[in-house]
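INFO  loader      accepted 1 record
INFO  loader      residues=272
INFO  predictor   begin
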Amino acid sequence: MKSIVLLLLVVISFASCSDYQKVLKEDEIAPKYEMAKSLYDKGLETDKGKYYRKAIRLFDQILPQYKGKPSGETVSYMNANSHYLLGDYFLSGYLFERFSKSYPNSEKAEEAHYKSAVSYYEVSPIYSKDQEDTQTAMTKLQFYINTYPDGEFFEKSNSKIQELSLKIEKKYYEISKQYHHTERYKAAIESFDNYILKFPGTKFREQAFFYKFESAYLLAINSIAILIPERIAEAQTYYEDYSKYYTGTELSEQARIYAKDIEERTNTQTEL
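INFO  predictor   done
INFO  writer      dumping tokens
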């Protein structure tokens, strides 16, 4: 009995593949549409990518013929969503964007805007790499929020924007910190200054103030004698900026050590 059932499944599978190949090769677009839709629906039911991949091959063949026709909207959406559900985000981002422009009044327009944005969110790289896709995702998510303030995906969009913002903040922070660690102290001071202005609410705010001060301090004490007084005085102002906001932290203890040294050096200089 098991052998018979297995044989039937093989025959059915072979017949199904044969029908697919036949439809794939014929010229009529109606059978292609029906089979593509059937495969797409089967993909939704089973969550198996093989059905989306087969459907996409048929969508690619019929999309030009359905352009401008009532069914074109359905075909375009299913094609974009197939790529999205397969995780082909580079293409789904573009396809959903094109869909929303071609069918702005579609009931799927809101979803298309969101999924286009999410596609760019999904391909956003780690913070150390180029963040062009991250910026695009943030722009598209913000567009969705502005366009659909009561939309289904409002909260998710907000959450994703915050996540992406943190990634960009960290990229700029690490660039500034790299200047500091490579002893390019002037560049570090300027970079941290710009960082604090650009991201006033950043989670790395204390670190930015501290490393700006530390850069100024290390620059001063490693300068030639004639430059030390002026640079020590500048470092002192940065310590005052830092200590206005932060006390009782691990970094603040180190900052106090630097500040004490600055005070001693200043007193010594005054005595001379």
